[in-house]
Design a protein that fits this description.
By secondary structure, the protein is α+β, with helices and mostly antiparallel strands. About 65% of the residues lie in helices and about 10% in strands.
Length: about 700
């Protein structure tokens, strides 16, 4: 059974008021005959057509859409004609004719673009994306789904944005990109929970469970499947409940919990039978049979395999029949029925070849539609020529298929003897591969659990680090207007800011420790502890004195003497002290400068030595800064200037940063922070952030 919902959902979930399901096409024809031949009648025809194709009443839907098309053409009503083309394309899609469906949808799109009908454009983007998705052309499908998403985001339509995210997640899932699919499913879930759309929430949660299953995270898959089951039960959605039960059984089976898998598959089977959903009854019989086979209950396994086979043969389910025959071959091998084993395996090969041939035929018929051609005149002759071309290609494809089948059948007979002789060895090899694969999956799960433990530990370290950093708005109740732009590269940061108030003096620092991530995080916590310890006494120290003592403490605690195998860890720092009564500013820096802007930018250079071992260490310089009222001080680390990006992928550099600061220094501090952040993100673009970012601005 399908565990994803592969339909376009942005309108499918909406209800069409005013129409009951008991309306017959004859009743609608009679009522429409009495209406005036105007644009309102075209709208009504299109509305009814869409209503019927969503109920899978395709003949009625096509009749109404064709009538709408004729009347819209007569009235030169382009919006009505576009909607008629969209409905005709949708009917062809429901009938499985993706090629002609896309032809009409592209014509509808061209008209909607001509009249600037954004609703119709977005709808057609989604429908065209679905036609490509069904044909497994996932890049094209994503291209159209993202176009629809962009338009909905521009319009601010949360409902449709949530459905767009769901459709994109479905496409990534079908493509096998489960991490991306999971990301978009969670985005969709967040919006739908905000809107309270329980039916779509159930779909989102089911999709998330499927992604976790594909990623081998079965405990999470089960957790989300049970959530989906609860919502389906609340909504009274019996098919949704059956699907959730089936998925839960599948995940227990993947975990090796056969008894739980059997329990939930059996519940699903009962429901599928009650609602007469044959598409899912056969696979569920097959799943239960396979569980019994794994439990070595071969009599029960055979019973369920036979039930699955009977339904599949009656309904032409080739994919399920192929799966049944390989499971039957394994069962025959376990029972020692080697003759039956070979016969079942030959049928497995036969159905596999048949499915491959059908897929190849579908791929041959996938003709790329030229969008510019669709925008030209839609004369009957042009459409008929195209249909004739398609018919001719289909005729050629049928010949190719016939010749391929004849050659394949002859080859199969010639190889039958070799299959009989070699199959037993192949089964043994397959069993070994399965065992190895299961072992690999176990190891993979173990590694993922270890990685999760490590990540959880790092996230806990992040919480500790953030707790040690004072909140920006509470650095000091006496501190003048300021901002702190703090953007760690990793979960924990090697950059940190530090502040302490002592009598009428306020100390403020921007610090850059060696490295980033976990190593940088350890150094930052060490630096915070040392700075707090050095300033807890009664003496009022200058910034230079603090840096000298901080370096002495780092050298001692890290045992740095300049030896060859010693750690080179340390930190760069920009440290200021402000007298809150007189506004006098003193400053000292290790490698990181201070910028002061009045009407021009003045740079106070730092000492070219770190807080740590350096071959030619000297006392740090103490600077008294003459900052006028309204001047702005900028303390920073090197991460912002060192970021690669822009059109040529080069560093941002200090010169450009100075120009930015000079251009924004008169704005309020919150706006300055937002501008600096926006400029940084635009410069970085899709490149990786190379270092932690810290910029502090303070108005005197």
């Amino acid at each position: 059974m399908r565990s994803r919902y592969l339909t376009i959902l942005f309108i499918a979930i909406k209800i069409f008021p005013g129409f009951g399901q008991n309306h017959s096409i004859d009743t609608l024809r009679n009522s429409l005959k009495t209406e005036k031949e105007d644009t309102n009648k075209v709208k009504e025809l299109n509305k009814l057509s869409e209503y019927f194709w969503r109920l899978n009443k395709n003949d009625s839907a096509m009749y109404l859409a064709k009538n709408a098309e004729v009347l819209a053409e007569k009235l030169n009503f382009k919006r009505g004609k576009a909607d008629a083309f969209s409905n005709i394309g949708s009917v062809y899609r429901e009938q499985g004719n993706e090629l002609i469906s896309r032809e009409y949808l592209l014509k509808s799109l061209a008209l909607d673009q001509e009249i600037k009908n954004k609703t119709g454009i977005t709808k057609n983007y989604n429908l065209i994306g679905l036609t490509y998705m069904v044909q497994s052309d996932y890049p094209k499908s994503l291209q159209y789904f993202f176009k629809a998403l962009a338009m909905n985001q521009e319009a601010g339509d949360k409902y449709d944005i949530g459905i767009n995210f769901c459709n994109i997640g479905n496409t990534y899932f079908s493509e096998g990109n489960y991490s991306e699919a999971l990301d978009y499913d969670f985005k969709s879930l967040a919006i739908e929970q905000e809107l309270g759309n329980k039916r779509i929430i159930a779909i989102n949660i089911n999709n998330i469970a499927n992604n976790y299953s594909k990623l081998g995270k079965y405990s999470l898959a089960l957790e989300y499947s049970f959530k989906s089951l609860a919502i389906d039960q609340e909504l009274g959605d019996r098919y949704g409940v059956a699907g959730s039960l089936y998925n839960i059984g599948s995940y227990y089976f993947s975990e090796g919990n056969n008894s739980q898998a059997l329990e939930y598959d059996s519940k699903a089977l009962v429901l599928f039978k009650e609602i007469q959903h044959k598409d899912d009854v056969a696979p569920t019989f097959l799943s239960i049979g396979y569980i019994y086979s794994r439990q070595k209950n071969y009599i029960k396994a055979k019973e369920y395999f036979d039930s699955a086979m009977s339904i599949s043969k009656n309904n032409g389910y080739k994919e399920t029949l192929r799966e049944i025959y390989i499971r039957m071959a394994e069962l025959d091998s376990a029972l020692g029925n080697y003759k039956a084993e070979v016969e079942d395996y030959k049928k497995f090969v036969l159905y596999s070849d048949s499915i491959v041939n059908e897929n190849n035929t579908k791929k041959i018929t996938q003709t790329e539609m030229n969008f510019e051609f669709q925008k030209k005149t839609d004369s009957t002759t042009a459409v008929q020529d195209k249909l004739n071309l398609i018919a001719e290609k289909k005729s050629q494809q049928q010949k190719i298929l016939l010749y391929s089948f004849m050659a394949g059948f002859a080859l199969m007979i010639a190889l039958a003897f070799f299959i009989f002789r070699g199959y037993r060895q192949k089964l043994k090899a397959n069993l070994l591969i399965i065992q190895q694969k299961e072992e690999v999956e176990k190891q993979k799960t173990l590694v993922e659990e270890k990685n999760k433990d490590i990540t959880d530990s790092i996230n806990y370290a992040k919480r500790i680090q953030r707790a040690l950093l004072k909140e920006e708005d509470h650095v000091s109740k006496h501190l003048p207007e300021h901002f702190i732009l703090f953007k760690p590269k990793d979960i924990v940061s090697g950059d940190f800011y530090w502040a302490v108030e002592k009598e009428e003096y306020f100390y403020f620092a921007a610090v850059d420790c060696t490295g980033h991530g976990v190593p940088g995080g350890f150094m930052s916590m060490l630096g915070l502890a040392f700075l707090n310890e050095l300033t807890k006494g009664p003496a009022i120290q200058t910034p230079a004195e603090i840096l000298d003592e901080l370096r002495t403490k780092i050298l001692k605690e890290l045992k740095q003497t300049g030896g060859e195998n010693e750690t080179k860890d340390g930190m760069d720092i920009s440290l200021m002290r402000m007298n809150l009564k007189t506004n006098e500013v003193q400053w000292s820096g290790a490698n990181n400068p201070l910028y002061v802007i009045d009407n021009e930018l003045k740079e106070t250079p730092a000492d070219k030595q770190p807080i740590g071992y350096y071959p030619s260490m000297k006392p740090f310089s103490n600077h008294i800064i003459k900052a006028e009222k309204g001047s702005i001080l900028y303390l920073l680390t090197d991460g912002y200037a060192d970021q690669f990006g822009g059109p040529n992928g080069k560093k941002f550099k200090y010169a450009q940063l100075k120009e930015v600061l000079l251009s924004i220094h008169k704005k309020d501090m919150k706006e300055q922070k937002n501008i600096l952040n926006e400029i940084f993100e635009n410069w970085k673009g899709k490149l990786e952030q190379v270092d932690d970012i810290l910029v502090i601005g303070l108005r005197v």
